[in-house]
């Protein structure tokens, strides 16, 4: 059984993606759009006081090619 993903707030995920080369493109309401140098686009829900749910977090990290095992330490 693999360990669970950590709880992550939207601002923590944004900082992680920025370290991976993503830049903030725009924000419309509570959804932030980020884009990588390779053209990959990802949408981050930024709801005040709420964490990103594990399924969505896993989906976003897999989509951008981030090694999820680095978060499970």
Summarize, please:
The protein has 73 residues and is an alpha+beta fold. The protein contains two helices and three strands.
Percent strand equals 15-25%
Instruction: Report the span from N to C terminus.
Output: 14 Å
Q: Overall mean pLDDT score?
A: 88
CATH level-4 homologous superfamily:
Hypothetical protein
Q: State the CATH architecture.
A: 2-Layer Sandwich
Number of domains: 1
Give, in spatial order, the strands making up the sheet with the most strands: 1-2-3
Sum up the overall morphology in one term: globular
**Could you spell the SSE succession in H and E letters?**
HEEEH
DSSP strand tally: 3
Given the helix and strand composition, which structural class is it? alpha+beta
What does this molecule look like?
- It contains 2 helices and 3 strands; from the N terminus they run H-E-E-E-H.
- It has helices at 10-19, 54-64, and strands at 23-28, 31-35, 41-45.
- Strands 1-2-3 form a 3-stranded antiparallel sheet.
- A hairpin with a 5-residue loop joins strand 2 (31-35) and strand 3.
- It has one domain (10-68): Hypothetical protein (Metal Transport, Frataxin, Chain A, 2-Layer Sandwich), CATH 3.30.920.30.
Topology, element by element:
Blueprint (H helix, E strand, L loop, with lengths): L9 H10 L3 E6 L2 E5 L5 E5 L8 H11 L9
Provide tags for this entry.
73 residues, alpha+beta, Metal Transport, Frataxin, Chain A, 3-stranded antiparallel sheet, 2 helices, 29% helix
């Amino acid at each position: 059984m693999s360990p669970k993903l950590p709880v992550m707030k939207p601002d923590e995920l944004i900082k992680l993606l920025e370290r991976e080369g993503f830049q903030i493109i725009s924000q419309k309401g509570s959804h932030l759009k980020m884009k990588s140098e390779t053209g990959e686009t990802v949408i981050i829900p930024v709801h005040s006081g709420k964490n990103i749910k594990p399924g969505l977090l896993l989906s976003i990290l897999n989509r951008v090619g981030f090694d999820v095992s680095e978060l499970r330490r």
